Amino acid sequence: MPISIALAKDQSHRALWRVRLGAALRTALACTMVGCTTLYGPKPIRGLLSYPAFTYVTTILIVSDATLGDAMRGFWQVAYATVQVVVPSMLSLWLIGPARVTKEVAAVAVGLSAFVVALPESTPLLCKRIAFGQIVIVYVGSVVHGSQTGAFMHPIHVAASTAFGAFASGFAMLFPFPRLAYCQVRKGCRFYAENASKRLSLIVEAISAQATTAAHDLISQEKCLSKAGAKILKTVHDNLGGMTWERPDIKFLKPKWKDLGDKLQNMEIPIKGMEVALSFCPLFPIGMIDEEFKQVLETSKLQIRLKLEHAKCFVPFDATKAPEGKGETSDKQLWTPKTTSIVPENLPALFLLYCMEFLLDDPPIAASLDVGPKLNVEGANEKPNSFIGALTSLMIKLPSGHDFVFALKCSVSLGLAVLFGLIYNKENGYWSGLTIAISFVTGRQATFALANARAQGTAMGSIYGILCLFLFQRLMDLRFLTLLPWIIFTSFLIHSRTYGQAGAFSAVIGALLIVGRRDYGPPTEFAIARITEATIGLLCSILVELLLNPARAATLARTELSQSIGVLQDFVENISLFPRQKNVPASRVLREKHHQLKYHVNDLEKFIEEAEMEPNFWFSPLNGACYHKLMASFSTLVHLLHFVAYEIEFISEASQKQGDGSDELLKQVNEDLEFSNKIVGSTLLRCLEEATSTTTLQVLETENSPVHDIELGRSAHENAFMDSGTYDKEVDNILSCFLQHLQEVVEKAYACEDTDQKFKRQMALSLTGLGFCIHSLAREAKEIEKEVKELVKLGNPSTKHINLYKISCKNNTLSS
After folding, report:
1. Using CA atoms, how far apart are residues 412 and 540, in angstroms rounded to an integer?
2. Rounded CA gap, 564 and 709, in Å?
3. What is the distance between the alpha carbons of residues 466 and 813, in angstroms, rounded to a whole number?
4. Are 322 and 306 contacting, i.e. CB atoms less than 8 angstroms apart?
5. Are 783 and 728 in contact (CB under 8 A)?
6. How many domains does the chain have?
7. What are phi and psi of 714, to 5 degrees?
8. Average pLDDT in the 681-702 region?
9. Which spans are transmembrane here (predicted)?
10. First vs last Cα of the chain: how many Å apart?
């Protein structure tokens, strides 16, 4: 590894260490404020803060890795949660009477209240967690204290304890200086600009390398920086929400950072395209890269660096004025690809140049990436800022099926945890419900893995607290100081893979509840009782999760794989230069399909991660190696296929504007596309979708029997497209014809004297970029087929030969 890369990694590690240490010290400061106030503060204040345990919980939930904007947002979310809980609980306790609240009544009240809080989709998750905890304390406290519980003062004490935790979190963010989300985003922009500049230099050096070994070394360095760049982008996106609370969006003050996340994503996508182009280069040096081409790459690289300077300085990226003294390179003579260079070996280099031009032109990419998996094509002309759009945004959304399931899960889990917790130990019945109240998530999670992390964290924290009290039993007034190193340690533990946020929160809260409180009885008995109550809550949570979501992550990963292949097939079959739907451009349809593919691939990645974390029990383990290879192919396709819509859109519009009679040539190009779509989509991908969607593989038992495809008029054994050699030959033949027709279109454009050089360059690069994407699509589809075969073979080790085409035909026969 070069010294510059090693120094950069060392600097990033030190910067990361400083950031995490600062977060740990602020967490320790916030907990110290709570501990000193609840242990040594004035008696009236200590009487008002009668639930210091939940004060600690609130503090930990808000302050961890937060900025000032996050703390401000957390404070208002706490206020919203408190209003949701305190007012209804006062009314219910006044109607029922605190003395008549039994275990069963408390469990039902907790379940119903949790359902009401969890159902609205618009309520933030942190707000729901805080509300769940308050609900548990209010009703369990009524059971524990009986008639001594005030119908009004008891909820007020809960609200005060929660509010003080939020206040301590915000106060800690001010020391030793405010940790502003604005500053974090500014740093992120600077780091990303530096990262992107280094990656760009490595990419240009790699594509121009004269030896394969040197090129691969540069590519490996670029991949390391690419991972760091992804982390920087995630940090910037995470801090943008806090910026809106530090610097509110005022209508007549348009902030420069308003669309910052989209602007950064606009820059990342073409760079990812360059990485893909490098990965498809078989050998180095590439024949077409001469001194003239290298000069073109250097010129484009310098122009991109000027753009990155704007990002580094935190100014709008669409500024056309270059820094003084650096603008002379933008007027270099334009280079256009020669028609003789449009051959398969040169396509990666031409696509890399296309991505550089794509980055310089700055099209609105990211604005379309955050759209949901399905777009309303018919309503494409509706303006988002219209009166109808504003009225729609003010309407209350009806809960979806997913929201109802989440609310039901929270309700039943908390109700059962409170009931069994109170039955086991009335005095410590809080902890069974509180353990799971602060850990709910809206989506799926690795239930067993996270429950194990929480159980271990609770045990570690409790044991640490007991040891601290044992060692400092003669200096009880200084006992809180022993918590500071533990708080710092658990702040770093949040970022570990083994424990994560769930285990780290449980560990720090477990120690805080023992050392940071008074009058709870012998610490050992309390620790054992709390561990037992936490286990009861976790068991209830696991039971309800299994009942409501019985499907294993491995099963969902296989289903999502089939759906991803199906969406990919749908995308391929819709690749066309001409619209197939009236008044709907082909590029828009492709964008919709791309959004759906990206959505399903993201879900597939989540299910794979969850399946690898969960225990297998008596089920077959997930074949992680195959699935990761499949994810690599799908990720490559997600990056590549994004450009197809823009290439087709430009080619279609350019042909209409040019009006040079190239329609006939484009029709021939479109015929090549449709033929390729038939081989890759209608044949190969359809077979893969059917093979991965089979619920049973009993069709393999009669594999040697012939199966006839009525549409193709031949048997499965005669299917030429399933044979690797024949498939490659067919794809090469199609690509050869496709490139020949592209070459004719480019020559036609070059022959037009009225067309300027920039247009010719863009037309040539768009056509060659489309050729690269189609060829890469066929190649990655074949890689997906190979891994699907491996998955099927591992599930059926007794089968010597796997014929996916036959499985697809038999599955269709069985399903019909």
Report:
1. 9
2. 24
3. 66
4. yes
5. no
6. 3
7. -150, 165
8. 67
9. 48-68, 75-95, 126-144, 156-177, 404-424, 499-515, 527-548
10. 58
Is 80 exceeded by the pLDDT of residue 144? yes
Residues 355 and 297 sit within 8 Å (Cβ to Cβ): no
- Select from 671, 613, 602 the least CA-distant residue to 452: 613
265 C-beta neighbours (distance < 10 Å), count:
18
- Which residue do the tokens 């082909």 mark? 586
Instruction: Quote the Cα angle for 529-458-55, to 5°.
Output: 85
- The CATH number linked to 222 is 1.20.58
State how far the alpha carbon of 557 is from the alpha carbons of 96, 612, 626, 710, in Å.
Answer: 48, 11, 12, 32
Per-residue pLDDT tens over the stretch 383-416? 334 434 433 443 445 677 788 999 999 999 999 9
Total Cβ atoms within 10 A of residue 514: 25
- Would residue 87 count as lying in a domain? yes
Q: Is residue 326 part of a domain?
A: yes
- Distance (Å, rounded) from C-alpha 347 to C-alpha 195? 26
**Which positions ≥6 away from 567 have C-beta within 8 Å?**
593, 596, 597, 600
**Mean pLDDT over all residues of the chain?**
81
Q: How many CB atoms lie within 10 A of CB 624?
A: 12
pLDDT at 367: 40
Q: Name the burial class of residue 366, with classes exposed (0-12), middle (13-18) and buried (19+) by CB atoms within 10 angstroms of its CB.
A: middle
> Is the same domain home to 514 and 588?
no
- The residues facing 714 across adjacent strands are 709
Helix, strand, or coil (residue 266): helix
Integer Cα distance of 189 and 184 in angstroms: 9
Question: Could you tell me if residue 475 is inside a domain?
Answer: yes
Q: Radius of gyration of the chain from Cα atoms?
A: 31
* Cβ atoms < 10 Å from Cβ of 615: 10
**End-of-domain residue from the set 513, 531, 548:** 548
The reply to whether 4 falls in a domain is no
* pLDDT single digits (tens) 147-189: 777 788 999 999 999 999 999 999 999 988 888 988 888 888 8
Q: How far is CA 198 from CA 115, 294, 305, 353, in A?
A: 51, 17, 10, 17
Residue with tokens 């919203």: 80
Pairwise CA distance, residues 316 & 332, whole Å: 24
d(C-alpha 553, C-alpha 179), whole Å: 39
- pLDDT confidence of residue 31: 92
Angstrom distances, CA of residue 23 to CA of 28, 165, 670:
9, 16, 57
- The rounded Cα 657 to chain-centroid distance in angstroms is 40
What's the Cα-to-Cα distance from 796 to each of 59, 505, 552, 623, 801, rounded to whole Å? 52, 43, 20, 13, 10
Q: Which residues of 517-542 are buried (b: 16+ CB within 10 A; e: fewer)?
A: beebeebeebbebbbbbbbbbbbbbb
Residue 135 has pLDDT above 90, yes or no: yes
Provide long-range contacts, Cβ within 8 A and 24+ apart, for 446-450: 446/553, 446/609, 446/610, 446/613, 446/614, 447/541, 447/542, 447/545, 447/546, 447/614, 448/542, 448/614, 448/615, 449/613, 449/614, 450/500, 450/502
Question: At residue 15, what is the residue type?
Answer: A
Provide the domain limits for residue 436: 12-178+399-548
CA triple 756-760-766, angle to 5 deg = 145
Question: Which strand (E) or helix (H) includes residue 677?
Answer: helix 663-677
Residue 619 in tokens: 């089920």
Please write the tens of the pLDDT for every residue from 15-37: 778 888 888 999 999 999 998 99
Separation of alpha carbons 505 and 436, rounded Å:
12
Please name every residue paired with 715 in a beta bridge, in sequence order, or none if there are none: 708
CB–CB of 688/803 below 8 Å? Answer: no
pTM listed for this prediction: 0.85
C-alpha 124/C-alpha 128 separation (Å) is 6
Give the strand pairing for 708-709 and 714-715.
Answer: antiparallel
Same-domain status, 50 and 82: yes
The angle formed by the CA atoms of residues 345, 346 and 348, to the nearest 5 degrees, is 100
Q: What is the dihedral of CA 280, 285, 286, 291, to 10 degrees?
A: 140
